[in-house]
Design a protein that fits this description.
Layout (H helix, E strand, L loop, with lengths): L1 H31 L6 H18 L4 H24 L7 H23 L16 E3 L2 E3 L1 H23 L1 H11 L1 H6 L4 H27 L3 H9 L1 H8 L4 H22 L7 H12 L14
Antiparallel strand pairs: 1-2
Helix pairs in contact: 1-5, 1-6, 1-8, 1-10, 1-11, 2-3, 2-4, 2-8, 2-9, 3-8, 5-6, 6-8, 10-11, 10-12
Length: 292
Amino acid sequence: MDFFLQLLIGGLSVGFVYGLSAMGFVMIFKSSSVLNFAHGELLALGGYFFLIFITVVKLPVILAFIFTLVACFITGILIERVFLRPLIGEKLIFVIMLTVGLAAMFKGIILLIWGGNLYTYPNFLPEAMGFRLGVVSIPPVYVATFGIGIFFLIIFGLFFKFSSQGIYMRSVADNQRAALSLGVNVRRVFALSWAIAALVAGMSGIVLGIINGVNVHDLSALGLKVFPVIILGGLDSIGGAIVGGLIIGLLETFTGGYISPSLRDVVPYIILVLILLIKPYGLFGLKEIERV
């Protein structure tokens, strides 16, 4: 039972990170129908930005965290302005292929600067942040993951529900042409979607860096796990991204704990194939019916 609880807590923590990371992916897809194949590299950029601020610039942890999120936000805006805006009106496949190119470019830049080495952050989480649940020990990093995840879920929930920009983003996601006819600045919504998606990816990169260390190959590969998460939860469902992330995180952890650690990375893709075969719109995705 203790082992089960340990795996449960670990799975929920990792699943929360997957869900948050997938949320950024879903936001881009909802607003522009673009599959962002550079999501893993954005996640890695967040991890490396935090590494710079905390080890090179030697900022306090809170400031390093805030500066990293700002840097990721600006990176998202620059990506939209420099690379994506010129492609507005072009076929969607061109935009998707551009994100493949961006993934290779960002990974190459990171490898050029930091190489493929594994870096670790200084141990800044206080031991007092962890606690025990019976005989099960909850490490500080898992508590921090839950705290960060819930905090940002509340912030984004309030943003989408009550802020004007959040409402504009929802309107563009629901019907881009209708939003445009009502005077919504769709280009600004696209830029904001990429900025927030990069911010969320960067935050996930920081958390994964705390858990596993910072390595461009590992972080960019983890970005690919967003695909099983969003296919499971539904490509256009932010709530589904969180639920899908939790399910994938739990499946991974229990598979590694009870069956074989070598199978834990395979399970998400088996789920992806099964969901595509059984329920291609995911658990919470919108089923579209085309009449011809």
